[in-house]
Queue: 2 jobs
Job 1
Amino acid sequence: MSTDFRTPATDAALQGALDAVGDPVRRSILRQLAAAEPWTIACGQFDLPVSKSTLTHHFRSLVDAGLLEQRDEGNRRMNRLLRDEFDRRFPGLLDLVLDQ
Amino acid sequence: MSTDFRTPATDAALQGALDAVGDPVRRSILRQLAAAEPWTIACGQFDLPVSKSTLTHHFRSLVDAGLLEQRDEGNRRMNRLLRDEFDRRFPGLLDLVLDQ
DNA sequence: GGTTATGTTCGACGATGATCGAACATTCAA
DNA sequence: TTGAATGTTCGATCATCGTCGAACATAACC
């Protein structure tokens, strides 16, 4: 048997998760990421109406919140959605975002 | 049969729900409300570190987001948590808040 | 080596929202 | 009728955060 008891998820952690998911640009990132294979999209390839520096800001937020991880591939920074991991910590929240 | 197909829940509605739930004072209101019987707590009876006018502001947010309804009883304004209604629109979100 | 592409960092700006106190309205109680 | 209790409204203030451009760093490509 695995130790899959519900993690208490302190309110501070919940605050971070809600903040991360509460921005429309970040939700768009999450949706585009969910629609593609892991590690196939670099930061600059997202279809978003913001500048490069703003993009960097949002990606940092998402990484800090545990929603995605990044990996450098030469020039580019590739992304992977931490779907199961996040869903385990905050059940249903990511689904709410991804169901449009 | 009842027409209980999943409402698409536009992103604007999701934005409103996340905003409403994204404030710690409002989450405290929701938790205190969930811990009591419906219509038993007036606005001024909540244990919160904010002023009266701030309280009014937060209650308006929660009503607008469809999280609670209010009813005047003489002097006081009583509250009821719209648990099932909100959970039907945004499954799991309120549980996330109420599970501390 | 020089140029282009991809990201980050930094400082600044602006909008939004949480907060408060004072004034007001309403209801209840003495 | 007077006073206390409960909420709302209205401005004002303050902090946070999303946003940008400019400068910088690094890697790929010719």
Job 2
Amino acid sequence: MSLDSQITADPFVDKPATKRANNRATNQDAILRAARLVFAELGYGGTTVRDIIRRTDLATGTFYNYFDNKEQVFLALNTQIGEELRALLAQGRQQAKTFEELIANNYLTYFTYFANNPQNYALTRSNRGRDGANVNMEGPQVKAGLAEMQADIEQAMQLGRVSKMDAAMLTAAIGGVAFSILDDMMQRNPVQPKQAAEFATRLFMSGIST
Amino acid sequence: MSLDSQITADPFVDKPATKRANNRATNQDAILRAARLVFAELGYGGTTVRDIIRRTDLATGTFYNYFDNKEQVFLALNTQIGEELRALLAQGRQQAKTFEELIANNYLTYFTYFANNPQNYALTRSNRGRDGANVNMEGPQVKAGLAEMQADIEQAMQLGRVSKMDAAMLTAAIGGVAFSILDDMMQRNPVQPKQAAEFATRLFMSGIST
Amino acid sequence: MSLDSQITADPFVDKPATKRANNRATNQDAILRAARLVFAELGYGGTTVRDIIRRTDLATGTFYNYFDNKEQVFLALNTQIGEELRALLAQGRQQAKTFEELIANNYLTYFTYFANNPQNYALTRSNRGRDGANVNMEGPQVKAGLAEMQADIEQAMQLGRVSKMDAAMLTAAIGGVAFSILDDMMQRNPVQPKQAAEFATRLFMSGIST
Amino acid sequence: MSLDSQITADPFVDKPATKRANNRATNQDAILRAARLVFAELGYGGTTVRDIIRRTDLATGTFYNYFDNKEQVFLALNTQIGEELRALLAQGRQQAKTFEELIANNYLTYFTYFANNPQNYALTRSNRGRDGANVNMEGPQVKAGLAEMQADIEQAMQLGRVSKMDAAMLTAAIGGVAFSILDDMMQRNPVQPKQAAEFATRLFMSGIST
DNA sequence: CATGAATGAGTATTCATTCAT
DNA sequence: CATGAATGAATACTCATTCAT
């Protein structure tokens, strides 16, 4: 029912007698960190603004100094994660010399990221689906990430590194496999991102015929 | 904000002089039909019981003669669709003589079903994700469907129709591709289930190397 | 959560295939019997008309053929018990030759009645207090019973069987002791009406000086 | 249907220009005062939270800033009265040198209290009975008060100030007489607590033989 | 800026009562 | 008369948002 339970803006300082001199960045960050936990735990729909600030040492009204409403925090959170992950993925693809490497790097990066950030996995997972319309395969970050990948795939096709085919569908398929195998992987113990990435890569390279 | 806007128990008859004319089956069905639309439009989280009955010529209290709460209607709806679809899929797999046919039949059935029932696609799509915990890759119906498929896949492995590999991961992958390509397909115009099924099948049979 | 659980209008006949030929008296009685249980269990405020008919094999609407609403059944029930008890008490007083006997008979009758009818005790006890305004020391039946006793007391004063004093207060006191000692008695095991009556009688005859 | 009709937090000041002027203590108190009236008028069962806040210039939600629900306000109210009255009663008993004084002080304190606080009498009277289970002879406050008195009575028995007898029954009887004579007294005009106390005391000391 | 109490619109749910069959 | 589904007014309670301090 509680992961941490109290996220102070600055965890190393006890609440001073005089009201803490919070600065903008610190408070905003405290809200975001609390929101990440709460969304992961209760899902977007089940979360209230009060659930978030309760996990903070801030007051209700303070929330509205930083965000317009629940949706905006959620968006900010997703943007944070999305941008971080997209950067990693893009970097992985750029280092690839063959198409197989591109696929393999992508999956390994993706699975490893969530294996190392299970909290972020919980967040996205609890909120896959719409309900606020900013999540899922259709969330703006995911969409952007898929678009970037599709561009790289199309380029690879141009360069003859892979036979030409419906790039949109291929991209969708790669994404779909990423999501579903991620779920499968995270349920296992131990979590083995490397093995998951290999499975997915092999599947895309040569199908089940392997 | 409104697709239809008034679902009478019997659309061919104007509100009868008497209000009590409706019989059990009819009213239950009217609620389900209204709920299907509303959930598709607003998503599970965004839907209120009042939204549902408002799309009906029934009274508030009548809703509770048929369902305990929002979750139960939603469940009923999902069960309806899920059981119908699972039956079709199972049937397709049983008719398959090779593993390729199994995959191909599965995809074709799946894509065709939603191509023909766009309303049901809208419903599932708006509610992919949790929030009520009965939907998505983890919804009971989807879970059951995947379990059935995994069983058939394992049997095929026993029979040597496909090389042995991690059946759970393979099942997850097949499911993931189904979801993501379905989305891609439904956005296109015209909707081409056959083509989508062929793409997915080929991918699984021999990867991108084709 | 259930004392009996199904009070059929006629407990000796299984529900016949054809709708039972209930006659007025039978149905009315079935409702009263069910109501007695339910009021005892849930209290007047906590009881709904549906709670009552649910304990019956009758239909909701049938209730309204016999009673206007919850209050009326409750009233009828109280009238039943009240009249029965008042008759017993009056009879006991008439047989008394001295004032002490009058008091003693009254208490013994009263305590014995509830010792033998614990269900009726539960009913009155759960509903002592107002909430519907027909219960308690001020319920019409109790009021009537006290008035009858007061009349007998006044007569005894006229006859010189007891010294003159404020008859209304004395009546109230006798009643108050009846209620409070009844509660005390019913909580004990075994229930000893005779002992309780003796205690109360002695108290009124000579106070604690005994 | 209305005694007063609007209880402002501060009756001497017209609604101030600002709505937020009220402080915690004031609002809490306004709710309690309104509740006292409403419970007295409609009884516990007949009272809704809306009835209470309607008698206030506060908003619905504000009620829930101070109390969890109807039962809690009721409890708070009863606790207030109960503790006040129990303290007075205990004090009266401690000042008694004989057992007769103990009884006499008790009754005089009790009857005087309600003679001076008719609103509190209305409250307890309308709610004597259960329905929420916190009232009456069985309400926690009454129970506590009776227990305290029983302890003092038992001590008096030890000290030989009164002959030994069933202390529980005696306590119950004293309580029952208090309730019933209180009702009788409050109906009279003028209200004469002294006379009522004398009557009750004499009754307990020497019975009707006086 | 921070605070946190006040606000009140909004939602789920119940239940007495009606009435077509 | 009996039936039991339909009705809809009524209530408890929540929660995003405001705003005086």
